[in-house]
Amino acid sequence: MPIRSRTRRVPALTLVLLVLAGCGGGTGGTAASGSPPSPTVVVAPSAAPASSSPPPSAGAFVGTVEVLPAAARQRMTGVSWRPGCPVGLDDLRLLRLSYVDFDGAAQVGELVVHRAIADATVRVFAKLFAARFPIRGMQTIEAYDGSDDASMAADNTSAFNCRNVPNTKHWSNHAYGRAIDINTVENPYLPGKQIMPPAGKDYLDRRAVRPGMIVAGDVVVTAFKAEGFAWGGAWRTGVDYQHFEKPG
């Protein structure tokens, strides 16, 4: 989502976190009762592609961090990335992350982020999974031909996209892989008099907390804040409820 506002290859690491899910259902921006368990982290060299990892069970979180494979680079080039972007492909990482969908089922999605925030992002989503915070879907922006508008309309959670802040000539932090948007319909972006996406108009009353909404002090804001991210929902102008960023 819009915001205000190189290359040494490193060996691929697979970061696997196993966490017991919290008890209680996901109810919007509020955490499940009780404190979610702290993830146990095991880091080991990747011996096989992350896609070979088994799907998570109902009670376990699995997150992987991978240097962009050739297939991902090919999909991204000319769509979400192109020569001249402010970050190179070697500095980006492909994450595969467990999440709980709106039906309470465990799913696996993908995000692309800058390598500097990859491990922190995994830790954040481990906490969201443990708290059973519901996420509608999580696909890289190529699934929407690089269109932020289409991704937002689909309520998609995404990260890297080499683009400007709308109506400006300034790079978005998404262009650096340092910003993440979550549940875009339930958490709209409000630049000026616009509502993005338009379906977000049903969620303008932030006191009526419903599943998938992010509100001050909830598990989502708290988890990102613990890793040094700023939340767009706290901005005075251009409020951006879906947006978290950690500029370099």
TrEMBL record:
Matches recorded under InterPro entries: Peptidase_M15C (IPR039561), Zn_M74/Hedgehog-like (IPR009045)
SUPFAM superfamilies named among the record's database cross-references: Hedgehog/DD-peptidase
Ranges of compositional bias, category Low complexity: 32-51
Membrane-spanning residues: none
Keyword Cell cycle belongs to the record: no
Domain Peptidase M15C intervals: 167-246
The UniProt record lists the keyword Hydrolase: yes
Protein name as catalogued: M15 family metallopeptidase
